[in-house]
TrEMBL record:
Keywords: Lipoprotein. The keyword Cell division does not apply. It comes from Dawidia soli. The keyword Lipoprotein applies. SUPFAM superfamilies: TPR-like. This is SusD/RagB family nutrient-binding outer membrane lipoprotein. PROSITE patterns: PROKAR_LIPOPROTEIN. Pfam families: SusD-like. InterPro entries: SusD-like, TPR-like_helical_dom_sf.
Length: 536
C-alpha cells in the first residue's frame, strides 16, 4: 500500500488536487513535482494557503469517510460499530461468513487502513509539513497535528502497529517500517504536546483567517481546539493506563493541569459538519436496510428505562417484538435479511459526525479520579456530570434526578423469538454475559464495580461512535457484551475479536516491514492477538 515509489508521489498529487479549484496557474509546476513541496511553492502565499486549507478540511472530513456511504460501511460500520454492541446487520453477507461471524473478509479488513492513509494521513502530513517552522502558520500546524493524532490513533486501535514516525521514509529495500503501538502512542503524545503548547500560547488572541477557514468543527476557536486536544490526550492516557501506568499518569495529569481545560459542555463537542453530504448511517439504515440496533445496547438501555433510547433507535415493527426496542445479536445464524430487518432501526441522524462529546471527558475524569490522578476531582461527581451532559445533549435532563437515584434497574434479558434454533440467541438472567450493573453511584462499591459503572454509562453516551466504544470494551471488558454463536474463524479467534489483521495489500507491497513488525506483537496477525494496551 505505502511503497517507496508511491511515497514519492504523495505530496505532489495532493498539491495538484488541493490547488485545482483556485491555483490553475501553478498546475503544471505542481504536477511535475514528484518529491513534494519546493521552497518556491511554500513561499507562494496564495498557493500554499489553499494547499493547507484544502488538506486540513480533507483530513477532518475523512477521520472516517462519510461520503460515499459504502466506504464508511466497510471502514467502520461492519467492524467497530458492531463489535462495540451498538449495531448489527440483518444482512447475512457471503452466506453469513463475514466479519460479524469472524470469517474475516480481506476487503473489509483493509478499508480502514486505506482510508486512514489515503484520506487522512496524506493530506494532514502535507498540511503539517507546509506549516512547520512558520510563525504565522503555527495555529494551522497545531490543527494538523491534533487531527493526525485523532485519525491515526483510531487506525492503531484497529490494527495495533502502524506507520507513523516512519511515514514517507522508505528503506533502501522499498519497505516502510511500522511503529509498535507503544512507539506510536509515544509519538501521539509528543505531537499533542506540541500542539497544546502552541494553542496555549495563542490563548486569548484572534485566530488567523486561515485557521477559521480550515475549521469545520468549531468555526475557528482556539479555546475549543485546546480543550479537544487536552481531552484527546486524556483519552489516550487512560487507554494505556493498564500497560504503562506511569506514562499514563504523566500524560493524563498534564492534560488535566493545562489551563485550557478539557471538554466541559455540549457546546464543546467535536462534531464534523458533513455540509451537503448525508450522514452515512442514514443511507445504510434507511436506504439499504443493512444496519439495525445492537442487542446489548437495546437490552441495557431498555432495562434502565433510559430516556435517551428513543433518540438512538425506533421501536421494532416485527410482529413478534412490535413496539419494543429490540436489537440483533452479533454472530448468530442468519439465513435471510428478512428474518431481522424489522427489528429496531436507528434514528435518522443530523449532518454532524460525532467524534467526541463532553460526556466522554467527564467519564475520563471519573476514571482518572479512581486512579488517583492529580486534578481529576472526585469520581462520583464526574460520573454524574457525565450522565448529565449526555442527558442535556438529547434534551432529557428533566429525567436526570430519578435516573441517577436508580439503584435497582439493570439490563433486560435478551430474547430473540425469531432465532432459527429456539432460544439459542437468548441472554437470560444468570448468564455471565448479562450486565447486572446498576446506575446509582455507590461510594462503597469495589473499584471494579465503579469502573464497570463508569464505562457502561460512557458507552451509552458515546453512541454512535463505535470505534471508541470497541476500544474501551477491549481495554476494560465493559460493558458486558454477547459473544458470537457462529464463529467462522477456523479456530483463529477464541473469544471476542481483539483486532483486525493488517491490510492484505501490505503483504504484497510492504512485506518486509509487515514481517518485521509481527515479531513484536506477541502473536500472529489474526483477530485473536491483543493490542499492546489490551491487558485486561
Amino acid at each position: 500500500m505505502i511503497t517507496k515509489n508511491s511515497l514519492y508521489k504523495i505530496v505532489g498529487t495532493l498539491a495538484v488536487s488541493a490547488a485545482l479549484t483556485s491555483c490553475t496557474d501553478k498546475f503544471e509546476e505542481l504536477n511535475t513535482n514528484p518529491n513534494g513541496i519546493t521552497d518556491r511553492e511554500v513561499n507562494a502565499t496564495v498557493d500554499v494557503n489553499d494547499l493547507i486549507l484544502n488538506n486540513l478540511k480533507t483530513g477532518q472530513r475523512n477521520i472516517y469517510v462519510f461520503n460515499p456511504s459504502w466506504q464508511y460501511q466497510v471502514q467502520q460500520n461492519l467492524n467497530a460499530d458492531m463489535y462495540a454492541g451498538y449495531m448489527m446487520s440483518p444482512n447475512p453477507y457471503q452466506s453469513n461468513n463475514n466479519n460479524l461471524t469472524y470469517g474475516l473478509v480481506a476487503g473489509w479488513n483493509e478499508t480502514a487502513f486505506n482510508v486512514g492513509y489515503d484520506n487522512a494521513m496524506k493530506p494532514l502530513t502535507v498540511a503539517e509539513d507546509s506549516t512547520r517552522g512558520k510563525v504565522d502558520r503555527r495555529d494551522t500546524h497545531a490543527m494538523a497535528k491534533i487531527l493526525k493524532v485523532e485519525a491515526l490513533h483510531r487506525i492503531s486501535d484497529i490494527y495495533g502497529p502502524i506507520i507513523y514516525t516512519k511515514y514517507m521514509k522508505p528503506n533502501p529495500d522499498g519497505s516502510v517500517d511500522y511503529d509498535t503501538q507503544e512507539a506510536a502512542y509515544n509519538a501521539f503524545f509528543e505531537d499533542l504536546n506540541t500542539a497544546i503548547e502552541i494553542l496555549t500560547d495563542l490563548s486569548g488572541t484572534e485566530p488567523s483567517a486561515a485557521f477559521k477557514s480550515a475549521d469545520l468543527v468549531y468555526g475557528g476557536n482556539y479555546a475549543k481546539w485546546l480543550k479537544f486536544a487536552n481531552t484527546l490526550r486524556l483519552r489516550l492516557a487512560i487507554r494505556i493506563s493498564g500497560v504503562a501506568p506511569d506514562k499514563a499518569k504523566t500524560e493524563g495529569e498534564a492534560a488535566l493541569a493545562n489551563s485550557g481545560g478539557v471538554l466541559d459542555t455540549n457546546d464543546d463537542n467535536f462534531l464534523v459538519d458533513t455540509e451537503t453530504a448525508v450522514h452515512p448511517l442514514n443511507v445504510i439504515n434507511n436506504d439499504w436496510g443493512d444496519v439495525r440496533l445492537g442487542a446489548p445496547l437495546g437490552a441495557i438501555m431498555s432495562g434502565y428505562d433510559d430516556p435517551r433510547l428513543p433518540y438512538y433507535a425506533l421501536p421494532a415493527t416485527d410482529a413478534d417484538v412490535a413496539g419494543q426496542y429490540v436489537g440483533i445479536r452479533q454472530g448468530i445464524n442468519i439465513d435471510a435479511k428478512s428474518r431481522y430487518e424489522n427489528y429496531s432501526k436507528l434514528v435518522t441522524f443530523g449532518n454532524k459526525i460525532q467524534l467526541m462529546v463532553a460526556a466522554e471527558a467527564w467519564f475520563l475524569k471519573a476514571e482518572a479520579a479512581l486512579k488517583g490522578w492529580s486534578g481529576a476531582g472526585t469520581a462520583s461527581t464526574n460520573y454524574e456530570t457525565g450522565i448529565r451532559r449526555s442527558f442535556e445533549q438529547y434534551g432529557v435532563a428533566a429525567a436526570l434526578a430519578s435516573y441517577l437515584a436508580d439503584d435497582e434497574s439493570t439490563s433486560s434479558e435478551y430474547k430473540d423469538p425469531d432465532a432459527i434454533t429456539e432460544e439459542q440467541n437468548d441472554i437470560k438472567v444468570g448468564d455471565p454475559n448479562l450486565s447486572t450493573i446498576t446506575i446509582k453511584w455507590e461510594d462503597g462499591a469495589s473499584a471494579e464495580a465503579k469502573l464497570e459503572r463508569i464505562i457502561t454509562q460512557k458507552w451509552i453516551a458515546m453512541f454512535p461512535e463505535g470505534q471508541e466504544a470497541w476500544s474501551e470494551f477491549r481495554r476494560t471488558g465493559y460493558p458486558k457484551l454477547y459473544p458470537v454463536i457462529v464463529n467462522n474463524s477456523g479456530g483463529k479467534i477464541t473469544g471476542f475479536i481483539k483486532r483486525l489483521p493488517f491490510a492484505q495489500s501490505e503483504y504484497t507491497t510492504n512485506k518486509f516491514a509487515v514481517d518485521r513488525i509481527i515479531t513484536t506483537m506477541g502473536g500472529p496477525d489474526t483477530g485473536n492477538t491483543p493490542l499492546w494496551w489490551d491487558v485486561e
